[in-house]
TrEMBL record, chain A:
Subcellular localization: Cell inner membrane; Cell membrane
Protein name, as recorded: Putative spermidine/putrescine transport system permease protein
Domain ABC transmembrane type-1 span(s) in chain numbering: 72-284
Segments passing through the bilayer: 20-41, 74-97, 109-129, 159-183, 222-239, 267-285
TrEMBL record, chain B:
Ranges where the ABC transporter domain occurs: 2-232
Signal peptide: none
Gene3D superfamilies, sorted: P-loop containing nucleotide triphosphate hydrolases
GO molecular function, one term: ATP hydrolysis activity
One Gene Ontology biological process: quaternary ammonium group transport
UniProt xrefs under SMART domains: AAA
Keyword Transferase: no
Cited InterPro entries: AAA+_ATPase, ABC_SmlMolc_Importer, ABC_transporter-like_ATP-bd, ABC_transporter-like_CS, ABC_transpr_FbpC, P-loop_NTPase
Originating species: Pontibacter chinhatensis
Keyword Iron belongs to the record: yes
Annotated protein name in UniProt: Putrescine transport system ATP-binding protein
GO CC field: membrane
Keywords, alphabetical: ATP-binding, Cell membrane, Ion transport, Iron, Iron transport, Membrane, Nucleotide-binding, Transport
Amino acid sequence: MTTLGQRLSSKTKAGAGVYLRAIFLLLAVLPVAGGLLYGLAYSFGLTGALSTGFTLQHWQQVWSSGALLSSLAYSLYIGLVAIALATAAALFLALYFQRSLRSGSLSYFLYLPLTIPAMVMGFLVFQLFTKSGLFSRVVYGLGWIDNLQGFPSLVHDTLGFGIILAHVLMAMPFLTLLFHAIYREQNLEQLQEVSANLGAGKSYFVRHIAIPTLLKTAAPNLLLYFIFILGSYEIPLLIGSQQHQMVSVLAVQKFQRFNLLDIPQGYAISVAFTLFVLLLLSISFKKLQRHA
Amino acid sequence: MLTIQNLHKAYQTHTVLDQVSLELPQGQVLAVLGRSGCGKTTLLKALAGLLTLDAGSINWAGESMDAVPSREREMVYLFQEPLLFPHLSVFENLAYGLRVRKEAEAQVQQKVVQMLQELELQEHAQKKPSHLSGGQRQRVAFGRAIIFLPRVLLLDEPFASLDAQSRASMQRLFLRLARKYNITALFVTHEVKEALLVGDRFAYMAAGKLQVYTSKDAFIADPQTGVRDELAFWSALEQQTTYQP
């Protein structure tokens, strides 16, 4: 190729790079940034049907009521417990059912729950664990409880059992397949041979090599799934407690109330939650990069 | 003394090990020369307990190893790839076998520091394997295998993936540490020069059969080993260079 040709080619490549970046900004960054700015403006009274000009009143109301902090704490609790249980179960399946996962027999059982939407999973848990649900009737049939009301509150309960269970059922298949893929990609099967040859039993290998390798490699995905649970809406709306609300449920309630003056508070909650998630992401990814 | 008698292994109709027998005194290195697919890896893996045999027996100092599982056999197989534990530092990779054996922390520290010096990797102790070169990784894998002084070290073309310079340096390191720690080893290679360099005893493997030679001269004299061809090539080249006008 001539020098002129090479110059033209590099210019064309640079031009294509600029266009691609512009398209990325237009499709991915602009809607999110626009939404965030609109929410921020709404929460400060700068826009909206009942806008009265800049005010901190809506933010003050959100902070003083304590609803945001308590729902954030509740969301963190649900997210942490659900991701911890799902991770533990997925690790167990990925480490001790390697052969079934490889042959595909277990994989079919894992792909099926992946196709179930969150709303359907919420209904499923409701049908199974409500006081008049399937498990309650089975337990009653076995004579373990005197009447259906004797069945413990596992749905709409304050500890969030139903929400956690629904999220664990949704996350577990995904995490199992993720860990299985990492197991193969990180060559853990051969590393287990090496470990055994150096004198270690399977449990030593699992504790000291397999689990740390899987968790470290999957950490960004686990973090993103945790954030997905934090912001989940359908499941806590269907089977969540009346006393404790997760952040998304609280925000949507503010938006949908008849009192239009509550809408800026809904935006304030959404913006605060978004900023919290961004902060969590930036701290976590910095830490992950440092330990990489 | 390592004693192997009539080892046999077949995959369906294909025989990979055919009545393999040998005796190797403690502290000696048996260099096994052979082409790809001749059964060298199968032999080493069977000795390490990573493969089950169809027939034959493996003894160490008169004690049968046949029923001893890989993790208790103390016959360490060194893979062609370093296969270091990716999330552990160089120090912890070296310490792995010692920690498995629940050695006291002071002992672990002392042995690993000494091994780091032997391997000339002191300044890399806290690095992760991904931050090392291929040669450095192979050195760590070698150190990790010998640090707890196994009965037998089984090396499967361990330096094959290295460049010529790193390879020569690793061969020198192997020889030095093999002498120092009185290592009993089977060193499999497809390179004639490497076999001659590292071996105290010599064997040639082809189609699952192992022929052990009584001396280095007998090994060199056997045409199937290819040593004479190699020597002829180099002397012809030397003559060409010497008599060039």
